[in-house]
Amino acid sequence: MSLKESQEKETNLKGTLISVSILGFVLIASWVGVFILFLSR
Questions:
Q1: How far apart are CA 38 and CA 25, in angstroms?
Q2: Which Pfam families match (predicted)?
């Protein structure tokens, strides 16, 4: 395995981690929003 390949894998992993954390944040944010709406009724 060359150095370039491992670097590409690392950046790909980082991108996946970022997209997953963004997705999780959006999910949690929408959940909290619905919960606040539910409480304020």
A1: 20
A2: CoxIIa
